[in-house]
């Protein structure tokens, strides 16, 4: 009996406090979880503490992979491991089918024939191949290339390389809205012009060039027209026949596909010929030797098909967000300038300059928003973007530019947050800025003669 | 002809799958895309069109369920800033 009582009390004392204790602990962990989590979630990287993964607004640099593309790649990854150029067994045939299917999907997006698509490693390779390849092939008769000052680095650098080899290059200036002056282009064309290379959508300012008109001018003068459409395909309607392009560079990772794959459209009729960069097994019509990256290519194909299906839906959504972002910032801040034409612009790009603010401080303060000051290749340096300088943007304004890239997966809440953080940061920096104070007092800072000590 | 209850349950299944993605952006997108997709086809009357749309959505459900397993196996190490502030 006594033992029964003792055991009962023991049980009671053990269970009861234990019960309350555990409930208490549960509550405390739940309460702590939100706080502790907050601490745990924060990331320490490169000396910066961020309280979570920043919201991603850098869709011109690259895009996250779409789960539907991921699924298509997964399926291919497991069994289609054959070399697509193996002609003697099923493994090769399967892989070849997968690649050809992707080729059809890419071709359909740009209204081309599948035979005109050459898979390469990305838009940089495609641009190099187009610019150098065509000029090298026609080097006996053609000595001149025309491009613009706002091209991507890989086109400009290829042109510089050609210059060292003795070719002549004309870098066309652009108007203040970022568009090419068609009359200037017409005048720049010479009898020995071998290539005109103008990008469709600018990576920094999102300006859409008048492709059809440029194509017409090139056709009139019988000059091959190359365009870098890495930022254009899947985002704006692309038709190689209407644009009259001879060569077009494309990339998968700008349209929610995998990195490391792209394509070059090489027109068949009238035929354009180019010297390959890679020599070897003669894959891809001898233009790009090397085993095709089957899975990447499958992903590229899937991304193209998806982009075609979703273009209208995505554009509507992205346009709404772009307006929301611009209106949100403009509502609260003065001295905000949109760089590049607003009428002829891809909706997912918004390149803004904030007057009287130091660009790097602004970017450093905006650690919770993943944006960049320009293209990824130039944002590491303190130099202002050469694209903005080509537009004639003042040095101080070019220094404070931020490129917001909006995409398929961006949410309204993210845009609101980005507006809130940007406004807060700009206001904070302006409060410290003596320049802004002077402007408020009505002093025109452009006319100040700064004395040097 | 697909019944409306079948359509509704498919919509719900897609929403359920989408809700489980550990990635903030994909979760939000799949919700928006599912709802908009079903809303867009709300007024379809042609039986063949309805069947087609139903089959398409069914395909999307299979894709979502397949990739979800992989996404759940590799959750992001840190939460998105949008989720941190919501807590």
Automatic annotation (TrEMBL), chain B:
InterPro entries given in the database record: Complex1_LYR_dom, Complex1_LYR_LYRM4
Coiled coil region boundaries: none
Name the UniProt record assigns to this protein: Complex 1 LYR protein
Native organism: Arabidopsis thaliana x Arabidopsis arenosa
GO biological process: iron-sulfur cluster assembly
Positions of the Complex 1 LYR protein domain: 6-61
């Amino acid at each position: 009996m006594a033992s029964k009582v003792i055991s009962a009390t023991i049980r009671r004392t053990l269970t009861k406090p234990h019960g309350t204790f555990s409930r208490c602990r549960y509550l405390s962990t739940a309460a702590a979880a939100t706080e502790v989590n907050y601490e745990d979630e924060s990331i320490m990287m490169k000396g910066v503490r961020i309280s979570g993964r920043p919201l991603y607004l850098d869709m011109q640099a690259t895009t996250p992979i779409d789960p539907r593309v991921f699924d298509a790649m997964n399926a291919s990854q497991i069994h289609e491991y054959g070399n697509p150029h193996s002609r003697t067994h099923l493994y090769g045939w399967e892989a070849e089918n997968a690649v050809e299917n992707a080729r059809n999907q890419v071709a359909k997006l740009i209204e081309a024939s599948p035979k005109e698509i050459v898979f390469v490693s990305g838009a940089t390779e495609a641009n190099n191949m187009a610019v150098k390849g065509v000029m090298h092939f026609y080097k006996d008769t053609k000595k001149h290339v025309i491009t613009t000052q706002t091209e991507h680095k890989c086109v400009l650098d290829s042109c510089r390389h050609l210059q060292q080899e003795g070719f002549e290059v004309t870098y066309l200036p652009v108007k203040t809205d970022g568009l090419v002056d068609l009359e200037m282009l017409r005048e720049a064309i010479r009898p020995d012009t071998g290539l005109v290379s103008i990008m469709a959508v600018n990576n920094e300012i999102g300006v859409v060039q008048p492709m059809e008109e440029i194509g017409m001018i090139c056709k009139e003068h019988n000059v091959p027209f190359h365009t870098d459409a890495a930022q254009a395909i899947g985002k704006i309607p692309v038709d190689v026949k209407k644009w009259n392009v001879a060569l077009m560079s494309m990339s998968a990772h700008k349209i929610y596909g995998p990195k490391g794959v792209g394509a070059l459209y090489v027109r068949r009729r009238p035929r354009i010929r180019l010297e390959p960069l890679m020599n070897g097994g003669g894959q891809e019509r001898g233009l790009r030797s090397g085993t095709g990256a089957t899975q990447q290519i499958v992903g590229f194909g899937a991304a193209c098909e998806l982009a075609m299906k979703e273009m209208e839906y995505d554009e509507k959504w992205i346009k709404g967000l772009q307006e929301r972002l611009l209106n949100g910032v403009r509502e609260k801040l003065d001295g905000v300038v949109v760089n590049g034409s607003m009428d002829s612009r891809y909706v997912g790009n918004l390149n803004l300059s904030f007057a009287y603010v130091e660009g790097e401080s602004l970017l450093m303060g905006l650690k919770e928003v993943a944006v960049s000051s320009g293209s990824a290749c130039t944002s590491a340096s303190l130099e202002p973007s050469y694209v903005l300088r080509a537009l004639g943007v003042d040095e101080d304004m070019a220094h404070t530019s931020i490129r917001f890239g909006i995409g398929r997966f961006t949410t309204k809440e993210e845009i609101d947050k980005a507006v809130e953080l940007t406004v807060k940061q700009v206001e904070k920096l302006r409060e410290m800025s003596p320049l802004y104070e002077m402007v408020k007092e009505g002093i025109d800072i452009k006319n100040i003669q700064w004395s040097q000590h | 002809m697909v019944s409306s209850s079948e359509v509704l349950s498919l919509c719900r299944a897609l929403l359920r799958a989408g809700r489980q993605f550990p990635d903030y952006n994909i979760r939000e997108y799949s919700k928006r895309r599912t709802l908009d997709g079903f809303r867009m086809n709300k007024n379809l009357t042609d039986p063949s069109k309805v069947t087609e749309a139903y089959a398409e959505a069914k395909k999307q459900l299979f894709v979502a369920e397949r990739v979800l397993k992989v996404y759940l196996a590799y959750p992001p190490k840190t939460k998105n800033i949008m989720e941190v502030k919501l807590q």
